[in-house]
Amino acid sequence: MILDDMVLDVSTFAYCHPGGDFLITHNIGRDVSKFFYGSYSLDGNHNNPAGRNNRWAHSNIARKIANRHCIGALVRVNTS
């Protein structure tokens, strides 16, 4: 998955995510920045009965965990 400009391999982390592995496996291959910073929440998530109204911004510890799973970085290319 993508977080900011980092490519993350979360295959070994999904089972220990505090919100459940559904949140990780449902977002494989996606940019999860909007979820990570709390501006968006999965609607109808079985681990989050409040749906969109219960948003979660991740802690500095969560950021350190994400950094440990970084396997690459996206580079923006100016095509003009």
Description:
The protein is of the alpha+beta class and 80 residues long. The chain has a single domain, classed as Flavocytochrome B2, Chain A, domain 1 (Roll). The protein is built from 3 helices and 3 strands, in the order E-E-H-H-H-E. Strand 1 (2-3) and strand 2 form a beta hairpin. It starts with a strand and ends in a 7-residue tail after the last strand.
Radius of gyration computed on alpha carbons:
13 Å
- Overall pLDDT level: 82
Helix proportion: 10-25%
Query: What name does the CATH topology carry?
Result: Flavocytochrome B2, Chain A, domain 1
Distance between the termini: 28 Å
Q: How is this structure best summarized?
A:
A hairpin with a 2-residue loop joins strand 1 (2-3) and strand 2 (6-8). The chain has helices at residues 21-25, 33-36, 60-68, and strands at 2-3, 6-8, 70-73.
Furnish the topology, listing elements before pairings.
Blueprint: E1 2-3, E2 6-8, H1 21-25, H2 33-36, H3 60-68, E3 70-73
Antiparallel strand pairs: 1-2, 2-3
Name the descriptors:
single chain, 80 residues, alpha+beta, Flavocytochrome B2, Chain A, domain 1, 22% helix
